[in-house]
From TrEMBL:
Similarity section: Belongs to the membrane fusion protein (MFP) (TC 8.A.1) family.
Lineage: Bacteria, Pseudomonadati, Verrucomicrobiota, Opitutia, Puniceicoccales
Protein name, per record: Efflux RND transporter periplasmic adaptor subunit
Coiled coil residues, start to end: 113-180
InterPro entries in the record: MdtA-like_BSH, RND_pump_MFP
GO molecular function, one term: efflux transmembrane transporter activity
Source species of the chain: Oceanipulchritudo coccoides
Any single Gene Ontology cellular-component annotation: efflux pump complex
Length: 393
């Protein structure tokens, strides 16, 4: 009896396992087969852009800081004490060409002018006396009848030459004294504004060693902007008088309002920057300096600049994001497949590319970034119903 129980414990577990396996196999064999369905093809959705032609000139984009064409550190040509300051000669003040900005005490220079006038009068009298003496010496020589020609010493020529030289020096000294007196009035060299004032009434200044203030012209503003050599090739030579300078638009956005001013390329830098490899174009702003929205163009403003480049004839313009490495675009065929086309690029900026070959006007190109690209892959336009036909794969 003990032996039978022992064998049952050994044989029974394998029999149970074998029976379970056989039962599972029978159930699987008797299970009805389910109908297998082919997965529907997945066509990536894309946004397409229709290529259009353009005869518009290329627009070059740059930016720069507005600056006055003339900016001056104001000094005096003479020394002295400041006697008066114009009410316009303060930071932010406006003035016209020729306005008196400061006046120095003129008394010392009036004295110098009087001395110069007296010296001139004395020199004129001395010259008149020497001329009379020279003429008398000639008459005396002739009355003696010594014969021959009198020497220069006899005719007092040296004294006469000295008197003439002293008269010339006295005239120059008078001019200098008059100019120095005029310089006691420091006048504005042009129409402009005051950036800073460093002196005031009662202060003593030492000629050009003292900086009186800083001013700038208000009737001429310009914007230096960097251009790559590629961009520079699309503008005319501004130094050539027979070529109309390239037009430009200056703009700035403040509180959601865009302000614009007109300008043109007046000149370019004489050399290329050795570090940036860029050339600087100087944009001359055109009056009026107040935009249509009432904003005045001021030095120090950082503005965007759009420069009208050359006209290239009939070209194609496409969005910049349609370009892929190697100057490739994905063209959409009539049966909604993508094919790669290499294009000839003339110009690119951050938003668009101008091309002249590889695709034609009216072609549609893909704008949607793709995870992968396979030549001839089938796609679906955004907004279309998903196609599930097997033939579309």
């Amino acid at each position: 009896m003990k032996i039978s129980n022992k064998w049952l414990k050994i044989i029974l577990p394998p029999l149970v396992i074998i029976g379970a396996l056989l039962l599972s196999a029978i159930l699987v064999a008797l299970k009805p087969e389910q109908e297998r369905k082919e997965p529907a093809p997945v066509h990536p959705k894309i946004e397409a852009h229709s290529v259009v032609g353009s005869n518009e000139p290329i627009v070059l984009n740059s930016e720069g800081t507005v600056r006055p064409r003339q900016q001056t550190r104001l000094t005096s040509r003479v020394s002295g004490h400041i006697e008066a300051v114009s009410p316009d000669f303060y930071e932010g003040g406006s003035f016209q060409s020729g306005d008196i900005l400061l006046r120095l005490d003129p008394l010392p220079y009036k004295g110098a002018l009087a001395e110069a006038e007296a010296r001139l009068a004395l020199a004129e009298a001395t010259l008149a006396q020497e001329r009379e003496a020279s003429e008398q010496a000639r008459l005396d020589w002739e009355s003696i009848g010594s014969g021959g020609s009198p020497s220069p010493l006899v005719l007092r020529k040296p004294q006469l030459m000295k008197a003439e030289a002293e008269l010339k020096a006295a005239k120059v000294a008078l001019e200098v004294a008059q100019v120095n007196l005029d310089y006691t009035e420091i006048r504005a060299p042009y129409d402009g504004r005051v950036d800073a004032k460093f002196v005031d009434v009662g202060q003593a200044i030492t000629g050009q060693a003292t900086i009186l203030g800083e001013i700038h012209s208000s009737n001429a503003l310009e914007v230096p902007v960097p251009l790559s050599l590629e961009d520079f090739s699309f503008i005319g030579n501004p130094e050539a008088s027979e070529i109309e300078p390239s037009k430009a638009i200056l703009s700035i956005q403040i509180n959601g309002i865009e302000h614009q001013w007109n300008g043109f390329i007046e000149r370019t830098s004489a050399s290329v920057n050795s570090q940036s490899r860029m050339i600087t174009a100087i944009i001359r702003a055109q009056a009026p300096f107040t935009s249509e929205n009432g904003m005045k163009l001021r030095p120090g403003m950082f503005v965007k600049v759009e420069i009208q480049g050359k006209e290239l004839g009939k070209v194609l313009e496409i969005p910049r994001n349609a370009l892929h490495p190697g100057d490739i675009v994905y063209r959409l065929t009539e049966d909604k497949r993508l094919e790669s086309r290499k294009v000839e690029i003339l110009y690119t900026n951050a938003e668009s590319a101008v091309i002249s070959g590889g695709i034609e006007e009216g072609d549609q190109i893909c704008l949607t970034p793709l995870l992968f690209f396979v030549e001839g892959m089938h796609v679906q336009l955004a907004g279309d119903n998903l196609e599930t036909e097997g033939s579309g794969q």
